[in-house]
Amino acid sequence: MQTVAAFDRIGEENAFAVLARAGELAAGGMDVINLGIGQPDFPTPPNIVEAAVKALRDGQHGYTAATGIPPLREAVAADLHRRFGAEVDPGNVLVVPGGKVTMFAAILMFGEPGAEILYPDPGFPIYRSMIEFTGAKPVPIPIREENGFAFSAEETLSLITDRTRLIIVNSPANPCGGVTPKAEVDRLVAGLADWPEVAVMSDEIYDQMLYDGEKHVTLLDYPEIRDRLILLNGWSKTYAMTGWRLGYSVWPDGLYDKVRKLAVNAWSCVNTPAQYAALEALTGPQDAVAEMVAAFDARRQLVVDLANDLPGVSCITPKGAFYAFPNIKDTGWKAKALASTLLEETGVATVGGPDFGVLGEGYIRLSYANSQDNIREALGRMKAFLSK
């Protein structure tokens, strides 16, 4: 059967393959601890769940506008203003079924044969997958351990050419937990003045998960690029709502109607009761968010201490998200082989660094979205294995 060649270029997110294999092993009786998948282990707060239930009982069963219900778009704008002082017109907010949808739309909008798109490496694997799907050339922005896993503005700007259409940045970052300092973001934005036709997608999905006094730097704070900035954010991580499939994006005037039409063609609208849950998440109590981040902070310190006690392993302290990215080069193992063997032989699920890009070799990702007891047990198993 003849298919379109572009579909042969689609990659995937291997964390889901690890999740599936971990499930198979657990079903077979193995005691599996999952430090692989990137989702909070907390339940969605009850007030959010009840808002969805109420919406169902109130008869909210039909289509909404493709862009999202107006109260939710207004709440997104108000939340961004409350947290950052950013002025956002609700008419520029698009509610989408998950953060990946914003990536898909932005990359599809700018990617085509002959174009180049810059993306973080190591970085979220869907960036590269979708760039290749469009036929554009993926150009990796190196995310280096010696730089605290933050991007370098100078290095990023040096990669721009006349063919560059879009730059993707991510802070706090998956998979490394890096947070890019404001001074570095300032330098990037200043340098982009020389490239007025290059758009920017800022993935800020972990914007409330920062530690050690770090403050989130949103690209919404830079009026000089607002006419070409696409902001990606959502509810999955902050409110433990990964399975609800809810995200939002902020688009400039010149692009908004294009993405609105894509929404009409591709998903019609986002699940209606889920939108009312998202509204409650933004406008209701925020205590659960603070409690979850405090728990992640304690786990972060634990996983770094234990990882640095593993033979042949070193681990810098992540500043954001809920991932550590330990260096395993001195173990003698290749990263994907180590991750696979740890799962099969010890029941500890991790993700090999190359699943996040070619520069991920020599590292594995540990998600500390798991209990302290499980983290201790998992790292203990890893230590016993690497000590053999």
UniProtKB/TrEMBL annotation:
Needed co-factor(s): pyridoxal 5'-phosphate
Entry GO MF terms: L-aspartate:2-oxoglutarate aminotransferase activity; pyridoxal phosphate binding
PANTHER family reported for this sequence: ASPARTATE AMINOTRANSFERASE
Aminotransferase class I/classII large domain boundaries: 31-381
Family to which this protein belongs: Belongs to the class-I pyridoxal-phosphate-dependent aminotransferase family.
Alphabetized Pfam families for the sequence: Aminotran_1_2
Reaction equations catalysed: L-aspartate + 2-oxoglutarate = oxaloacetate + L-glutamate
EC id: 2.6.1.1
Name this polypeptide is given: aspartate transaminase
